[in-house]
Description:
Blueprint lengths: L2 E8 L4 E7 H5 L6 E11 L6 H6 L7 E2 L3 E6 L2 E6 L2 H9 L5
Antiparallel strand pairs: 1-2, 1-6, 2-3, 3-4, 3-5
Amino acid sequence: METVKVLVTDKVRGIYYGSIDLIALEGFRGGGVVLHDARHCFFYAKCEGTYSLATKGPQPGSKIGPVVKRQAISDVATISTCDAAAVAAWEAAGWSS
C-alpha cells in the first residue's frame, strides 16, 4: 500500500501531519480521513500560514505533539501533500518551550 505525507486541516482549525493511503487521498470527497503516524500542531511559529507547513514544515518555536499510530480526523477542510523539506522538518519537530 502506497502512502503519502500530508498536512490536514479541519473545520475547527485543527492542524495535523501524517501519512495517508494514496488511494484514500485520491478518492477523498469530503468528510473524514485516517492518518498514520500522525502529529498535531498546537502552535506554529515563523510560518506564512498553514500552506508553509506543507512546504517548509514547522519552524523553531512551534509546538508539535508526539506521534500517534493512528488518528481519525473528522470534518476535514484541506489536505495538502508535503514537500521533502516539510517532511524532514515535521519528523524532527518537537515541543518548543
